[in-house]
Design goal:
431 residues; alpha/beta; Transferase, Pyrimidine Nucleoside Phosphorylase, Chain A, domain 3; Pyrimidine Nucleoside Phosphorylase, Chain A, domain 2; Aldehyde Oxidoreductase, domain 3; four-stranded antiparallel sheet; 45% helix; EC 2.4.2.2; Pyrimidine-nucleoside phosphorylase; 1,4-alpha-oligoglucan phosphorylase activity; thymidine phosphorylase activity
Length: 431
């Protein structure tokens, strides 16, 4: 088997076999195939695409390039979720403790943020002392003991995907659905969960801008997971405005704490409960979807979900005393952004809000950038809300970096007019 033959086969639009894809990934990972030849293959794939079977073979080959986490020592069905990335998306911080409080085993490896999308691990690191790295045996023991662990992705999980993604990033071959799907699913399949819900974001602040694109990606990821023996569900959720009100690492922990105490914004609660209900059914904990949603809502209101969050933070070394006053996690420097006119908010461009938070230091332009955990944006209004001229529509939490630029981006992101509308948040479910 020769790499040039595989490149030319894909260039000509032909379907690759499992053996050819396995050869490609194995030899690229171990250094036998150089970047220039893999770049040629990626560009050929970009123009000729892959079918579902090829994408599945690619996901499995990347999964098998490194460690596969064995969770068999955790009794019962282990669940996980993945978001394709959005602005203000702190669902994992709420969903994990919420499910664990109802007896579901939540064993999650999460990533860091890059670009305008935040990472769960960065958010958890804004809690003083929280350890994001655990040996696998300690990870498993913690899930057995308290029902939940959330850690950073191991450097040995799907190393082929890390290497391939870095190359895609510099060869303009990131945004093709089979490569996105196989990249995401290689890590999910290696992480060991039995049931997975995918939250596929669609809109201004998402990688998938249209519902058609998001549906194709969701269907392919569900198909890959099913062929690998996983229980799979995908939901399409809107990202034409940020999820919740707070954007930035410590700010999102703050809003997660509010939500776990029954005081969360409706859109954030709705998405979390929708995902949670599917996982309650897949875990065998509940058999009726509406009953599952009611139980999740009750756990948010009665304090059991918040207590499980405290258990998680304490188990991983975090200072739970700081969580009783989460505002202490935030920067003390604030700037108020005032409305320039009166009317209804007709648009909040999530991408521009994410960029504004990045300018303040809350996100990374490159993987090596150092972020500031205590800065970000608190949006006081949602689409459909009425505002008066001169009223505060957002508060910037700053460290004297990028303030003017962030303020300008926020004002440009928020459109005010006469139309009173609300967005559809949960657009589609794919099983």
């Amino acid at each position: 088997m020769h790499i040039v033959d595989i490149i030319s086969k894909k260039r000509d639009g032909k379907v690759l076999t499992k053996e050819e894809i396995d050869y490609l990934i194995k030899n690229y990972t171990n250094g036998n195939i150089p970047d220039y030849q893999m770049s040629a293959f990626l560009m050929a794939t970009y123009f000729q695409n892959m079918n579902d079977e090829e994408a599945t073979f690619l996901a499995l080959a990347m999964r098998d390039s490194g460690d596969i986490i064995d969770l068999s020592k955790i009794p019962g069905i282990k669940v996980d979720k993945h978001s394709t990335g959005g602005v203000g998306d702190k669902v994992t911080l709420i969903l994990g403790p919420l499910l664990a409080s109802l007896g579901v085993k939540f064993a999650k490896m999460s990533g860091r943020g890059l670009g305008h999308t935040g990472g769960t691990i960065d958010k958890l690191e804004s809690i003083p002392g929280y350890k994001v790295e655990l040996p696998v045996q300690d990870f498993i023991k913690q899930v057995n003991d308290i029902g939940i662990a959330i850690v950073g992705q191991s450097g040995d999980v799907a190393p082929a995907d890390k290497k391939l993604y870095a190359l895609r990033d510099v060869t303009a071959t990131v945004d093709i659905i089979p490569l996105i799907a196989s990249s995401i699913m290689s890590k999910k399949l290696a992480s060991g969960a039995d049931a997975i819900v995918l939250d596929v974001k669609v809109g201004h602040g998402a990688f998938m801008k249209t519902e058609e694109e998001a549906t194709k990606l969701a269907e392919l990821m569900v198909e890959i997971g099913r062929k690998s023996g996983k229980k799979m569900t995908a939901i399409l959720t809107g990202m034409d405005e940020p999820l919740g009100h707070k954007i930035g690492n410590a700010l999102e922990v703050y809003e997660a704490i509010e939500t776990l105490n029954g005081q969360g914004p409706k859109d954030l609660v709705d998405v979390t409960v929708e995902i949670g209900a599917h996982l309650l059914l897949d875990s065998g904990t509940e058999s009726d979807f509406e009953t599952a949603k009611i139980k999740l809502q009750e756990a948010l209101q009665n304090g059991t979900a918040y207590q499980k969050f405290l258990d998680l933070v304490k188990a991983q070394g975090g200072d739970i005393n700081r969580l009783s006053q989460p505002e202490q996690l935030l920067s003390k420097n604030t700037v108020e952004v005032l409305s320039q006119k009166e009317g209804y908010i007709t648009e909040i461009n999530a991408l521009d809000i994410g960029r504004a938070a990045m300018r303040l230091g809350a996100g990374r332009e490159t993987k090596d950038d150092v972020i500031c955990l205590e800065v970000g944006i608190d949006l006081h209004k949602k689409i459909g809300d009425h505002v008066k001229k001169g009223h505060v529509i957002a508060t910037l939490y700053t460290r004297d970096k990028g303030v003017k630029e962030a303020e300008k981006l926020v004002l440009e992101a928020i459109s005010i007019g006469d139309e009173h509308k609300r967005l559809q948040l949960i657009k589609k479910t794919i099983k």
